[in-house]
Amino acid sequence: MEGTIAITDYEWYEYLSSLGNLDEINFWTPSSYWSFRGQIGSPFFFKLKARYNNAICGFGFFTRYSKLPDWLAWETFQNKNGCPSLDSMQKRINMIRERIDYKSSKSKGEIGCILLAQPVFFDKQNWIKGPKDWPPANLRNKKYNLSEGEGLRIWNECLERISPKIQEKSLISESIVSENSPKYVAPQLFKPRLGQGIFRVTVIEAYSRACAITHEHSLPALEASHIKPFSKNGPHDISNGILMRADLHRLFDQGYITITPEYKLEVSQHLKSDYENGRTYYPLHGEQISLPVSNNDKPNIDYLIWHNENIYK
Fold first, then answer.
1. Which residues make up the CATH 2.30.130.30 domain(s) of the chain?
2. What tens digit of pLDDT does each residue of 106-127 get?
3. SS (H, E, C) 47-90
4. SS3 of 124, please?
5. What is the pLDDT of residue 168?
6. What is the distance of C-alpha 187 from the center of its chain?
7. Is residue 271 within 8 Å of residue 277, measured between CB atoms?
8. Is the dihedral of CA 229, 235, 236, 237 positive or negative?
9. How far is the CA of 131 from the CAs of 38, 151, 152, in angstroms?
10. Which residue has the higher pLDDT, 104 or 301?
């Protein structure tokens, strides 16, 4: 089992730690050139720079990596990006790019987003000593085996500092923390509980950034729809989401359209009787929607039936 240790700006740490308990954060990089690969559910540790003694100041659990326009990253995570505004975030991005002499033929607004669930930040008195074997000149993230050496030490010390608080809030499964053992053991992968922002990005990526109904690719026009609303105990889970154009999303939430268990679109006659219109949408009636490639990402039939029976008019 591997975890990742990544260099973290003190200002990013300081701002996010001041916000209190967070369900998710975006650990962004100013360039989308370098992708990140990690095991879903694996720990991702925040390491400060040498002026702060290379200390580990917190960690989160990796959920996914995505390349996003900076405006979408802000719209999705807002201050969970570690900045108080989009303007301040863009200024920080540009400052870092100038420092590293970043040049790209792609859109300057695209950044790399490492999306983390259940982040924990340590107070200064609880910072953990950084890895002894960290290469002095290394500025990129580094994988560590959490069952031995420095990886195991850092993971154990993290659990010693946060396990009571985390267990109380049920953020980490009991299988990861063993109170009956004299020492904590390396973590097992677990399914992170997604927040609204990670849910949105996960749905966008699962549907290849295209509306499931119209195949529209313009990101500003697309929204991640919950099949069973979060307010009705619907989870932030990919199987409870469909990517739709914004107008279709509103019709879906208000019950004027639905998706059948056969993944076909139905348009309610109430759209015509309530508004004496709907000619834009009725031609879509009976159309098969586009689905994610992975079967695990497809809409859950039970959620679709729930929407058919409880929301659709």
1. 2-168
2. 555 789 999 999 999 999 999 9
3. ECCHHHCCCEEEEEEEEEEEEEEHHHHHHHHHHHHCCCCHHHHH
4. helix
5. 47
6. 20
7. yes
8. negative
9. 19, 8, 10
10. 301
φ, ψ for residue 257 (rounded to 5)? Answer: -135, 160
State pLDDT tens for residues 138-175. Answer: 778 999 999 999 999 999 999 888 855 554 444 444 33
Q: Model's pTM, two decimal places?
A: 0.87
Q: Cα separation of 249 and 184, whole Å?
A: 46
DSSP string, 242-282: EEEEHHHHHHHHTTSEEE-TTSBEEE-THHHHHHS--TTTG
pLDDT tens, position by position, 18-62: 998 899 999 999 988 788 999 999 999 999 998 999 999 999 999
pLDDT at residue 106 in the model: 57
Task: Share the mean pLDDT of the chain.
Answer: 88
Domain 2-168 matching CATH 2.30.130.30: the answer reads yes
* CA-CA-CA-CA torsion sign (143, 147, 149, 153): positive
**Residue appearing with tokens 């039936």:** 305
* Nearest C-alpha neighbor of 199 from the set 163, 227, 175: 227
Q: What are phi and psi of 88, to 5 degrees?
A: -65, -35
Structure-token pair, residue 117 = 């669930």
